[in-house]
Design brief:
Layout: H1 5-17, E1 20-28, E2 56-59, E3 66-69, E4 93-97, E5 108-113, E6 119-129, E7 136-142, E8 149-154, E9 163-170, E10 179-186, E11 195-208, H2 210-227
Antiparallel strand pairs: 1-11, 2-5, 3-4, 4-11, 5-10, 6-9, 6-11, 7-8, 7-10
Length: about 230
Amino acid sequence: MRIAPALAAIALVAAAGTAHADFLVGYWNMNTGQASGQAAPLTIAAAFAANPGVADLTTNFDPNGYKVFTPIGASAHNGLNGLALYGDVNGNDLGLQNGAAGVNNGKYIQFQFNTATYSDFTLTFAGRRTSTGFTSFDVSTSTNGVNFSPAGSITTIVATGYSLITFDLNAAIDNAATAYVRLTSVGTSTSSGGNVRIDNVQFNATVPAPGAAALLALGGLVATRRRR
């Protein structure tokens, strides 16, 4: 049975739309970085093979309000969300403290990376908090680093141990030369040492599989020939 050229193009594009692969676009294992008391901004390198462009983690937290911890014993995360990546060891995590008089309430950590050709982003990380730590993070996104749009909140970080936190960014940062994702701290207490700890942060995206990209190109060619 023959398929008309225009219908063939539609069929090819439809087939391509179902063929996707997950791709790790940004990753921070927190095993190296500046310690508490050093000048902001905090920057932790993420120059791994899976990262196709510039990637930085910065913050406007008071420099005395973030620490690099080595979780042990009851607080260990056992490499949750990262131990199998690049041969990583079960190393440090990043602790974000309330600070004196809650000075860091409303402060943020910001991830910056290239999302060109990628879509449908999901943020995951290992997280826990102390009983007096921040209760949640407001998530916002930007493609210029100036104008940010709210994307939702992360409210599932618990004080009973590390858990895997997952947040769907939908299409907020798709196909951007530079994308920014901010996590802004919400809720504080009189305990300056109350904190939230995060580790093994990943941004995963959906990309067309190689065969799908070829099908899309072929579909466009068929449609063009039909118009002639």
